[in-house]
Amino acid sequence: MEGVALTMSTTPISTITPISHASSLTDIPANTNPSYMTVALAPGDGIGPEIMHAVLFILDKAGVSKYMSFQPVEAGASVFAKGETRGVTDAALTAIESCGLLLKGPMETPKGSGGKSINVTLRKLFNAYANLRTFRTLPGVNTVYSKAGINIDMTVVRENIEDTYGGVEHRLSNDMIQCKRLISAPGSDQLCRYAFKTARALGINKVYCGHKANIMKMTDGLFLERFRAAARDFPEIEAGDVIVDALCMNLVMKPQQYKMLVLPNLQGDIVSDLCAGLVGGLGFAPSANIGNEISIFEAVHGTAPDIAGKGIANPTSLLLSSLMLLRHVGLKQQAAHIENALLVTLESGIHTGDFGDTSKPSVGTMDFAKAIADRLGQTPKTVPAVVVSTEQQDGDMCYTRPARPSGPRMIRTFKNIVTSVVGCDVYLDTPHSPVALAEEMKRACQDTPFKLSLISNRGTQVWPTGSVYTECVDYYRVRFELKDGISAGTIGQSRTIALLDRIAEGFTVCSYELLRNFDGIRGFSLAQGQ
Amino acid sequence: MEGVALTMSTTPISTITPISHASSLTDIPANTNPSYMTVALAPGDGIGPEIMHAVLFILDKAGVSKYMSFQPVEAGASVFAKGETRGVTDAALTAIESCGLLLKGPMETPKGSGGKSINVTLRKLFNAYANLRTFRTLPGVNTVYSKAGINIDMTVVRENIEDTYGGVEHRLSNDMIQCKRLISAPGSDQLCRYAFKTARALGINKVYCGHKANIMKMTDGLFLERFRAAARDFPEIEAGDVIVDALCMNLVMKPQQYKMLVLPNLQGDIVSDLCAGLVGGLGFAPSANIGNEISIFEAVHGTAPDIAGKGIANPTSLLLSSLMLLRHVGLKQQAAHIENALLVTLESGIHTGDFGDTSKPSVGTMDFAKAIADRLGQTPKTVPAVVVSTEQQDGDMCYTRPARPSGPRMIRTFKNIVTSVVGCDVYLDTPHSPVALAEEMKRACQDTPFKLSLISNRGTQVWPTGSVYTECVDYYRVRFELKDGISAGTIGQSRTIALLDRIAEGFTVCSYELLRNFDGIRGFSLAQGQ
């Protein structure tokens, strides 16, 4: 990081503390002074160091060094090369923890070496549950939408922990693999509340929830319900919802109709990259991963090894990510100041080689940065300037790193709910026909409190009725429910496990779920056709 | 369907046969003559009947009645009104079965009445496993892409049965709901093979698989592997793959780079609606649901009740869907003939009220249809005409309804695989801390062949190591694996169920999975951090 103008902390973080329950970080000096902070800095691989250099140069010229210094940490290719499969050293993790803030350039995940994505590792490790991304039409960045005169100014809040991203996958038979899609009430709560709080801070008056609750009725139904619950605490903000496939069509046809979107993980991943495309690609789209204690601000584009070291890379995405950092800690005016200078620069036609008017010569990374620094204090003419309202100025520059938790915490939404066992779903690895399987299952539950209520295959009922056209794979779900006359709650799970045991004498039971009512409401979906 | 010019079958389908295992349809006369066929016809609700009328008028003028007649069937609002929650009568289902082909207008799903989507019902019932959608830039249909001079000609093949669309959902604790995402090898096989066969028929030389195998490594990894396996049988067609989020960004920035995409269900749902947006919306995007026996051709736009009966609706989507039907049965030249007339009509600026040059007056539905009929035999000048190559003409008009299966069939990919039990995952509904839970679990497995190997929460490892920042919900996964010295395959599942039984003495076991190796390869993912 030679030549970085901002003050670097020179005292190394002394104690290397592994991230585990047994450890504790006490008396870390950084970021307990609300008017001056240290930010961990991981320049990244490929073009990372040169665009980071350009960004720090601009921040310094804008006077940000009065409020923050940067502490370089070791992460990325050099760490992977030492055989550390996380791609980040213990010392780096400790420094990030002590700061509570990380500004991060693009990093490679080496293929085939067992190395894991640093982005995913850091998000999980620090429980950065919300991915915040903003998408704004920039002057001089030509896209099909800018050519059509469509102005985009949109924020996407994506859930970052749950959904299928838990990576809980099992091969359940020769031919069937399952991935668990998990949606929790408290996880949805904190994400949606964060979205509304952010909308409030940004002066956004309508937030849409994107979801697929018409198909995933229970999981996305829960996400949507918690979105609506959160909305009730923000009465000044309108709350709408839209099915994700329709949303993507609308985004392509009329993106200007949305100001803020909040979505579950996979759908949010897809939608946020779609939105990046609307404004010119990942090179113009910043990103932040927000946690309760630690937040990560990063460029999500690649490391562009083909142009690394040439001094021609475009620092815009990383610069915009650093402005998210400034806004996160209350430096809203400084962020607006820099963003306006960027807009003026782009408006004047100055561009790096990857975008802009190709009939005009492009400039290098540092000349682009200097052009922005030279324009600090100016406001754009062709697009609206970024203005910080008096109201938004409240709470200026007041960041204190939250205390380190002593261990994993429980987050909860629903308590004091009465559950009652009503049956079980048993999943079998078998090539039986539905009818033959039904005979065996009826026998298995004969002397139990349960009756066979349905058999389904890939979600479609195949017994007691079904379609002759259904194609079955070697993985069945068999549902047992209480016999008529036996009330919910009068028997316990030991009876379902006894049934499971009996079935396992003749079949491979690859999976099982307890069927319960929660406060009298059925806690499971019906099969298609049931 | 008054005034429909095409021949209607006057003999009603005599036997109403419920779709069930016990039933059989024998000697159904329809569609065993390869040169003349009957197509079941469901005009739909709202604008459905009037756009269907227009489409049948055009088909008739193009001489299609030499090859096919239409058999009206009862489905939609009138059937829901009678209290039939499927929205389709048994007689209609029998007629569709006997034809093997259904042309369908838009239909409503009444809200809150317990009624189910007819589209979903029919797809499941008839195992229409592939959703085929084509997206083509049409002259006179202004979009941001047409204005930018970007020509789109793309086909999307979406899996229609699996993924989270099986709707298998369970509430596993107060705060956690799960949806099973299921991907099977034979389901992926038949979908991918259908995509390549379609690419071959359409003369498309490159097919991309869209997926999220970087996150859902086992499920989408399987889908991608089966895509590659299918590709080997089509050596003249190039096979590529792209991560779905990057795909959506690329589609927005440079859609012309793709000719055909094949995707799992949810991702395909999102991507295909995105693509509809690129060409002007659902009003210009046809759809077909293809099964081995029965295929459904439909407009996927809404019923537009606000303009129903006014004779102003746009029949383009349904017309294009009917052309997919013609191509499906080998009437490629007739389809090209009609499509060229549509292109000439649009090129001349004729338009219904929902699109086109608003400075020119719009025409009604039937005048639009007549304008197309008047232009049969012409070819467009501003866009490439649709040409049927000599090669593609092979196999002209040769549709025979496949035999009705006698019952559900097994589809299989992997056989003769040796599996061995190596442990189990047990999922608990508990508010314990990870450390306290670990103590209990270690005790539970003390005298068993298993050791506690990890505890995770929402996919993130919390024991034996973990991050203090992890936020836990009331739903844990506890993994037990064979103790050192015990070989895979030497113990059976009865031991894992015995362990389950012991755990259930003190905890609510909401879910369970058997851990196995398949031909020595681990059949389950590791936890984040494991």
Keywords, separated by commas or semicolons:
homodimer, 530 residues, alpha/beta, ten-stranded mixed sheet, six-stranded antiparallel sheet, 20 strands, 22% strand, disordered N terminus
The largest contact between protein chains, plus residue counts on each side, is: A-B, 138 and 137 residues
Distance N to C terminus of chain A = 64 Å
Number of strands of chain A: 20
| Separate helix tally of chain A | 15
Report the β-strand fraction of chain A as a percent range.
15-25%
Structural class based on helices, strands and sheet pairing of chain A: alpha/beta
Task: Provide the gyration radius of chain A in Å.
Answer: 27 Å
Largest sheet of chain A: 10 strands, mixed
Looking at how many chains there are and whether they match, the oligomeric state comes to: homodimer
**Main sheet: strand order of chain A:** 2-1-3-12-11-4-5-10-8-9
Low-confidence stretches of chain A: 1-29
What do the pLDDT scores of chain A average to? 90
Amount of helix of chain A: 25-40%
Sum up the overall morphology of chain A in one term: elongated
Topology of this structure?
The structure is a homodimer of 530-residue chains.
Chain A: E1 37-42, H1 48-61, E2 68-72, H2 77-81, H3 90-99, E3 101-104, H4 118-125, E4 130-136, H5 144-147, E5 153-159, E6 169-171, E7 176-184, H6 185-202, E8 206-211, H7 219-231, E9 238-243, H8 244-253, E10 260-263, H9 265-278, E11 286-290, E12 295-299, H10 316-328, H11 332-347, H12 365-374, H13 390-393, E13 409-410, E14 419-429, H14 434-444, E15 450-457, E16 460-463, E17 471-472, E18 475-482, H15 493-504, E19 508-518, E20 521-522
Parallel strand pairs in A: 1-2, 1-3, 3-12, 5-10, 8-9, 8-10
Antiparallel strand pairs in A: 4-5, 4-11, 6-7, 11-12, 14-18, 14-19, 15-16, 15-18, 19-20
Helix pairs in contact in A: 1-10, 1-12, 6-7, 8-9, 10-11, 11-12
